[in-house]
Amino acid sequence: MAQEVGHLGIRVNHDFALVEPDRLMALMREVAEARPQAITTFCTNLRAAPLAEAVERALDVPLLDTVSTTVWGQLRAAGVDPGQVRGWGGLFGW
Fold it and tell me: What is the mean pLDDT of the chain?
């Protein structure tokens, strides 16, 4: 069963954009300790998608960010190969 391990407690959407990549990485390392099948990040202003490649390499777990999964799905719906996107993780190679 899925379990919430890390949470920022932020309620103002703009404030998510102020979260530093090092803080996000620390939270994802904490989550990865539970050996999940994937790590998810939720928020349109959270700058997690560009971290996907580094997270997946360092933690050996896929990062599924809501922005990246939306872009991936829209590219597929438009008939565009998502594999053209670089740096946003393994999802774009599936």
Answer: 89
Q: How does pLDDT run across 28-45, given as a tens digit for each residue?
A: 999 999 999 999 998 878
Site of tokens 């920022």: 8
For 89, the token pair is 């993780």
Q: State the residue for tokens 């994802």.
A: 28
Phi, psi of 48 (to 5 degrees): -95, -35
- Cβ(91)–Cβ(67) under 8 Å? no
Q: How far is CA 79 from the centre of its chain?
A: 23
Instruction: Output the DSSP codes for 8-22.
Output: ----SHHHHTTS-HH
Q: pTM above 0.85? A: no
Answer positive or negative: Cα dihedral of 15, 17, 3, 1. positive
**Cα distance between the two ends of the chain:** 24
